[in-house]
Specification:
Two copies of one chain form a homodimer.
Chain A (H helix, E strand, L loop, with lengths): L7 H12 L3 E2 L2 E2 L6 H16 L3 E4 L5 E4 L6 E7 L12 H17 L4 E6 L10 H7 L4 H5 L9 H6 L15 E9 L4 H4 L4 E7 L1 E10 L3 E2 L11 H16 L8 E3 L3 E4 L5 E2 L2 E10 L2 H21 L3 E4 L3 E3 L2 E2 L2 H14 L4 E6 L4 H5 L5 E6 L15 H19 L1
Parallel strand pairs in A: 5-6, 5-7, 7-19, 8-18
Antiparallel strand pairs in A: 1-2, 3-4, 4-6, 8-17, 8-19, 9-14, 9-15, 9-16, 10-13, 11-14, 12-14
Chain lengths: ~400, ~400
């Protein structure tokens, strides 16, 4: 079969067409099941049909574009819903790249490729709802009882797409694998002047809520030696943690104290209590476990040394997803050809639909740079040359893997 | 003149009488100019009159009990308003101790003593309003434009006492000095099993608001090395400050990071901004200045090292007040006689009316222990024996200083 050659002008034009739905300034306001999201999906279905793909909405609004026949094929795509107020490429890029590759392949008689736009990746009803349901990680019955922040149930939300949907989910049996193209959403490629990221793993995430409790007191009359200052406990905890992690982490490991709540939070009162989150991410579950041990031990030690009490939630977490070796190698080979010296292997610090789809089939991912590392923001953008190059790498990978 | 001998039963009885006004559980709800506060002041005025003192309300509701004649005399007292929800002894103790000493002296023909209850020490309209106005630190015109948290102006509030008040302020010329008895409101005396504190100074307070600004970012996709995490800046700042202060402070110096506001304060977002207060207190203005220099230099250095921007308010402050040497020595001598081995010289970490009165005359203070160091809380309490002993030290000091 001939290799797939994409049409760069059409790729960029379709990206801008999709951008129209929910446009606000430079960004988009296109949350899952909003009118703009449904209109965008109907436009996508029409584009798929024009390309010769069979457009199918499943019961939750995931949209598949299936090539003719029932032969095995690669699946590619991402999501076309946006953050409540988001950028124009987060998700949309991977959907349009998949559409263009599937379309170009049909035109040239190349290896068949299916395209998909998963629903509610951005978590109106919880993380990655559409691919979670499709992959079997979340049952439809459980999903139907979920609510968004306004109290609307998932059952009601998906009913807004009922007229479009077929009754059954699309079988995964037909797909040989899943490749998701996505913007990086971080600064690594851009800051190194690189064009393509070949994802090695989607990092696992652990998150835990801590409380240090001491004694609330008058900030004038309580000598330092008699204080049980909960915020000073956090200072010592965070400082000790940074030092102890140095021996354990890789440059790709991240940890964040993002939420801090001091009580009573008054200038003249020694803090009696502080609640805070620790979130840590890494591509290696064993490392995540070691970090958890260090975090727990440090919290206990600091609490004892500073005469505080410590409470913690059990951490919630999502395991790391390793990319399929054969798919990853195929993408790396294409990147080596198309972006020599301008690509790297790297972890994905953000979650993606591919993590769910890995329950069903081999998965891999392609990153293109985010200018300034900006995402989840109207200012999110990627150079046009990189948008084209990412789709070319996807096309070359699909060709090579089918060969 | 014979030395003043107080009546312990009457002291304790009057403390409990005053406690009735605004009683709630074990504490009191008697903020300045509330019905309970005004009723308490009217009761106090009647007690003063019964004792042979001339009760005078000044234009802002400060209540003086003046001995007969116009001879020079010592002034003693504190305040009878409470925190919005406060303990029964904060302020009230010093007022009743002064009343008892003035009354006992009149009965025995001892040295004349005047008693005072300043208005709004607890700051409904700003810190120590009544004594601030009487001492000339705040003009009546300026004060009238102040408002409480509900928007009520000071002019309206003091109008509620207009029917009780004389048109003029009480002249300070007649008073040879001011001694304020007060509960410690801290744990030092109680934790050392001591009965009397002879105050050396009322600490100065400096307070400053800081902001570290970095870059808000995705907590998954932003590598540690590329982060500009404002909260991590605060961690380093606080840790460095603790280390640098070690060479500068005394055991009586305190510093507090009491208010912390992280932005956007979300588990999955690298903090882009943190606002926090640093408050520091010491009895020595020169030390407060050195600490300010260290705080400012540390904030600048940490900001530079961590690629953050730092902004700060100019600090607001109240200078330290050194107690008058003669008055302090007189109190120390009385404490040595009446509480041998059970007293100490100590700074006051809290502000008191004496700091304002020092603008007009020599001042000194006597502390009695706070059980468990608790104050500004319904649980505030002091052993009855210590309440009596504090008044005896006040009486002995007044006798000796007049002699």
């Amino acid at each position: 079969m001939p290799p797939i050659a994409i049409n760069p002008e059409r790729l960029i034009q379709d990206l801008h067409e999709l951008r129209r739905f929910g446009t606000s300034g430079n960004g988009v306001i296109r949350p899952a099941y909003s009118d703009a999201d449904i209109a965008a999906r109907e436009w996508l279905a029409a584009r798929m049909a024009q390309a010769g793909l069979t457009a199918v909405f499943d019961p939750v609004g995931n949209l598949f574009g299936l090539p003719p026949g029932d032969g095995k094929c690669l699946l590619s795509g991402s999501h076309s819903d946006s953050q409540p107020e988001g950028g124009w490429l987060d998700g949309a890029y991977g959907v349009i790249a998949a559409l263009e590759v599937a379309r170009a392949s049909l035109e040239a008689g190349g290896p068949p490729v299916a395209a998909v736009s998963f629903q509610d990746e951005e978590g109106r009803f919880g993380p990655l709802t559409g691919s979670r349901i499709w992959s079997g990680a979340l049952s439809l019955a459980e999903a139907d009882s979920l609510s968004d922040l306004s109290g609307l149930s998932f059952a009601e939300a998906r009913r807004s797409m009922a007229a479009l949907s077929q009754p059954d989910f699309v079988s995964a049996d037909r797909f040989t694998g899943f490749i998701e193209a996505h913007i990086e959403q971080g600064p690594v490629l851009d800051s190194h002047n690189e064009a393509i990221g070949v994802v090695e793993s989607i990092v696992g995430i652990r998150s835990e809520l801590f409380r240090f409790s001491g004694q609330q007191n008058h900030a004038g009359t309580t000598p330092m030696a008699l204080r049980r200052d909960a915020f000073q406990g956090l200072i010592r905890f965070a400082d000790t943690l940074n030092a102890r992690f140095a021996d354990v982490v890789t440059p790709a490991t991240v940890w964040t104290i993002g939420h801090v709540s001091v009580h009573p939070n008054a200038e003249s009162i020694v803090p009696g209590r502080v609640d805070f989150t620790v979130q840590w991410r890494d591509g290696d579950d064993a490392r995540l476990d070691r970090m958890a041990d260090i975090i727990h031990a440090t919290a206990e030690e600091v609490a004892q040394e500073t005469d505080l009490e410590v409470e913690r939630s059990n951490y919630s977490g999502i395991g790391a997803t390793t990319m399929d070796e054969r798919l990853r190698a195929g993408i790396a080979s294409a990147a080596r050809d198309l972006a020599p010296e301008k690509w790297r292997q790297m972890p994905s610090g953000a979650l993606h639909d591919a993590a769910n789809v890995s329950r069903l089939m081999p998965v891999a991912m392609i990153f293109v740079p985010s200018i300034g590392g900006v995402s989840h923001d109207f200012a999110e953008d990627t150079a046009e040359a990189h948008l084209v190059l990412g789709a070319e790498v996807l096309a070359a990978s699909a060709s090579a893997l089918a060969g």
